[in-house]
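Problem: given the chain below (78 residues), write out its structure.
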Amino acid sequence: MLTAAQIRAARALVDWSGPRLASETGLSLPTIRRMESALGPGRSAAENVHAVQKALEQAGVIFLSADPVGGPGVRLKA
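Solution.
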């Protein structure tokens, strides 16, 4: 499951505004803002979270899971 911090960081990596992510996913800006807030994506419908992840991945983001060395993160494809 994505975290709010991962979504914010991924959006920053591809230099997308909140409105741009909303446009790319077909979701409302309040939905994007809620996913990026303390409420996080866990309170959103699974299909909305998937839409955000898919759009950001298509833009070149790789989502990293937590591991023994660190928490979840993001990076750009080479």
